[in-house]
Design brief:
mainly alpha; undecaprenyl-diphosphate phosphatase; hydrolase; PAP2/HPO_sf; membrane
Length: 173
């Protein structure tokens, strides 16, 4: 079993190297930086505020779900990071990260978790936005690899975790 995980880690690191090289233009244009920043917390609150101000049907339920979901998500992903303690790529690979992340550990990606959580909640309340928000969440996740702060498995785990939390909250509320 140990050999299996060693091979999986090696594949993840090779995939990271390839993606990091392949996304150089995203870094040079600063597009990766802006995509990553769009996944920061204040923008979620801003979207919820606009939905409430515009009195979009379903916005109150969306806000309730978002509050509960993020109350679950934040301590959960932070707890997992501190429990699993996977070093970020630049500590194991010969890459220089473009941004300085908030902490040392990378698994799971908090940005990918939050972006997919938010996208799933938006889609549950406003289904017409599905392609836009899932596309945006995927771009946030890819930007984290492009910036050198996450491995592909970090963002995949974040996408799964965020989507699962959203599904749980939607089932509850």
């Amino acid at each position: 079993m140990t050999q299996f995980f060693s091979r999986l880690r090696a594949l993840d690191e090779l995939t990271f190297d390839w993606l990091f090289r392949s996304t150089r233009s995203l870094r040079k244009s600063r597009l990766a930086f802006w995509l990553s920043r769009s996944g920061d917390g204040p923008y979620y609150a801003l979207f919820a505020l606009f939905a409430a101000i515009a009195a979009v049907e379903g916005s109150l339920l969306f806000i309730q779900r978002a509050l509960l979901a993020f109350a679950i998500e934040i301590p959960l992903f932070m707890g997992l990071k501190n429990l699993l303690r996977r070093d970020r790529p630049w500590l194991r690979r010969k890459v220089k990260p473009v941004i300085k992340p908030a902490d040392r550990f990378s698994f799971p990606s908090g940005h990918a978790t939050a972006a997919f959580l938010f996208a799933a909640l938006v889609i549950a309340s406003f289904p017409v936005w599905a392609p836009l928000f899932y596309g945006w969440a995927a771009l946030v996740a890819i930007s984290r690899v492009a910036l050198g702060v996450h491995y592909p498995s970090d963002v995949i785990a974040g996408a799964i975790l965020g989507t699962a939390i959203a599904a749980l909250v939607v089932a509850i509320l």
